[in-house]
Amino acid sequence: MDFRILGPVEVEGPGGRLRVRGAKTTALLAALLSEPNRVVSVERLLELVWGDDPNGGTANTVHVSVSRLRRMLTAEEPDRQLRIVTHSTGYSLRVEPGELDLEIFRRRVQEGRAATTEGNVEQAKGAFEAALRTWRGPALSTVQRPFAISLAAALNDERLDAQEWLFEARLALGEAADLIAEIRNLLTANPLRERLYGLLMLALYRSGRQAEALEAFREAREVLVSELGIEPGSDLQMLHQQILTRDPTLTSGSSSGAAAATHLPRQLPADVPRFVGRESELTRLESLLARQAVNSMGIMVIAGAAGMGKTALAVHWAHRVRERFPDGELFVDFRGYTSDAPMAPTEVLARFLRALGIPPPQVPVDLDEQAALYRSLLSGKRVLIVLDNVSSVDQVRPLLPGTPDCLVVVTSRNDLRGLSVMHDAHSLVLDALTSKEAIGLLSRMVGEQRVGDEPEAAGSVTGLCGRLPLALRIVAANISARPWLRLTSAAAELAEGNPLRQLEIPGDPELAVGTAFEHSYARLDPASQRLFGMLGRIPGPDFSSEAVAVLVDQPHEHAVRGLERLAVAHLIEPSAPGRYRFHDLLRHYAVERVALDELSGDDAVEAALDRLLDWYLQTAYRATGVLNRHAQRIFQLEPPKSALPPLEFPGYEQALAWCERERANLVAAVRCAADSGRNTIAWQLPAALWYFFFFRRHLTDWLTTHELGLAAAQRQGDRYAEAWMRNGLGSALRELRRYDEAIENCRKARGISGDIGDRRGESANLHNLGEAYHRVGWLSEALECCQQALDIRREVGDRWGEAADLMLLGQVSRLLGRRDDALGYCRSALTLWREVGLRLGEAITLNSIGEICRADERFDEAIEYYREALAIRRAVGDRWGEGETLDNLGHALSRAGRPAEAGDSWRQALAIFTEQRHPRAATVGAQLQELEDPEAP
């Protein structure tokens, strides 16, 4: 079946031309043919076909009209697959290659342009003539809808371009005299086409009619000045000067000036269909272009990892700004990251020079000569130059024009910072799409209804794709090919094992995320490849340069250089000063490389992982020792396994900052140690970190690491380690209000400690058991446990533990109504805390004394104690404790008749508990509401 829009809209089947009845049906057919094989939504069809109809249209109107059109096409091909396919959001018209005249026209034009570039002028002429024969009149002439009029204008411009390229080919073949009348006729209908005037001038001059050629220039100038108020462009003026001086190159078949006047390169690929998002990046590109006029900036580098959508963004934006570059666009894919050899600058320059009108025999062979001629041709012009998939700065430098009026857009997986240093290039590094953009792209490709029906599954799909545009497009294509597939099932497929296995198009190995990564990896030197594979073994979401130095057992400077090489190639990305991370899918690829390169069983790699995990343990041990130098050390470190020493911390703030910065990695390190059978580290690292987790209230991490540590201790048969892991686990469960489990673990820990004679362990177990009893209101049991723990602490000389027990005895005694005892215990605890120098313990005890004073209605004293505790908690970074004390301070201020101050205190507490998603936020919020509106329910 043949579909035609280059002229009246027609369809011809095996039985002859089909009769399409009605203006609306014809317009509907044209709308579907304007986007063949793509889904056109019902809303879009209503807008295109019925948009300005006073009677309007509805979705049902579209369905009825589509059904009528489908019946007509099906009747002509009863044994074929349906031509019009119904989708969840709209319809698509299935058109096979060679069935649509527009597709044939464009293919023939492309063949003609390629032949021209290769210097085969005769073949180019034939291709352009074949292209123009597909036209039967003005495009879409039987459809008078606004969309058709707009599309027809664009298509008619394409027809004019093809006609001009045909004239150029015929000029090159010596047909100048025969062309004069044809060019004049085309100029009569299109009097503002400078390119046609240039062709006419050249044809007249080559026909021996110099005076008429000069007169043609005067006619062109008169029309342009009177109609547009502008002078002829530099190309036409240069040709005029060459004709005046009888430049001998004008009679040789072509010349740089004449060719440039008649060659307007339009090499941009088609715009990306269904482009979504990147609004902030597009805005930045626009701002950089606006600055070009002021700062003469003419180079933009769009960099990023494989599959990030660099080419798509560059091409899409280039189409948006192409009108600002009236002298044309040049485009080349350098193939910097494919299985083919990258293109050399000499090859690219030769192509560009031919596209700018230099005949193949006149293209220089020497790179410097090519570049010089290229710069000469671009002088004074505004040309948009897109250099895609560049792998090195050396490929770009010869292609930089010598004029500030041109713009060069470069895409690369490397950052090409040399262009910034030497040529003031501006860089835009692409990251993954935002969640909203990723959902938008998925919706555009698989249909808004499918995404709307399963929003959570859609979010899972985009998340498992790492919001990487290439991955999303591949997944969306695979989902669209299976209309029965639910997004929930697609997400489950991606979640099974390595998602890279799902991110490929069957039968097209080059269109796969893994292949894109492979091409980047292949460009690395062997040392960088091995480092990349080893980084795949690092647990955690990111890694520091110090950790990598330990991993590779090399000086820190060596590790930094290796990481920078990978970052320049965008195989890893900086996440903070001195820190790096993988994109999620690149991490999967790095893990895959470990297996492909047979590194997984490599003794050297396993030794590297041993060093790294030990380094995390050694450094965490030192950091938490700075946070609380009196915290009980339940094991002694072995000598470091790396020649590089663990980090040392000059002060409290530095140690705390390191723990927070590495927290996710430390948790991952515990899991890695447990999963790989490194049981000793799997329980010692949680033991080293418990105080940090308690102090900063990272309860989930506390629980997770101690569960892993407990399992490791049991696998190892180490009862001492098991008791300490149960003790820490019980404390975490207590803070999570899972009191039954907390009490069970503390009891078991106490039993083990008693059996093996670990008195320090037993006292810690008794303290935590007493704390759990205290929380559930078993105050007599809590008091007994605390007293037993205190006796053991004094026996073994554990002053830090003694202070903790005294503090807890004070809290329990207060609840039992023994306020004098409570105050005595707390004051004794406060003295000990100050002796051992633990400011957090001091703050907690001051808060407890404030509670005792408040219970006795000594509100002014309570306020002073709370404020003293609050200052310490803020100084040591105890964010949760700060909220607790602010809440208590609010109560004291309220009871003291100072409601405004109470409200301010509670508002601060509410902000902290809300930030930490703590259930206490609801209670504080209710207190605030009651304070501000006592009559409110």
From TrEMBL:
TPR repeats lie at residues 843-876. Residues 1-95 form the OmpR/PhoB-type domain. It comes from the Bacteria. Residues 1-95 bind DNA. Pfam families: AAA_16, BTAD, TPR_12, Trans_reg_C. GO terms for biological process: phosphorelay signal transduction system; regulation of DNA-templated transcription. InterPro entries: AAA_16, AfsR-DnrI-RedD_regulator, BTAD, OmpR/PhoB-type_DNA-bd, P-loop_NTPase, Sig_transdc_resp-reg_C-effctor, TPR-like_helical_dom_sf, TPR_rpt. Keywords: DNA-binding, TPR repeat, Transcription, Transcription regulation. GO terms for molecular function: ADP binding; DNA binding. Belongs to the AfsR/DnrI/RedD regulatory family. This is DNA-binding SARP family transcriptional activator. It comes from Amycolatopsis cihanbeyliensis.
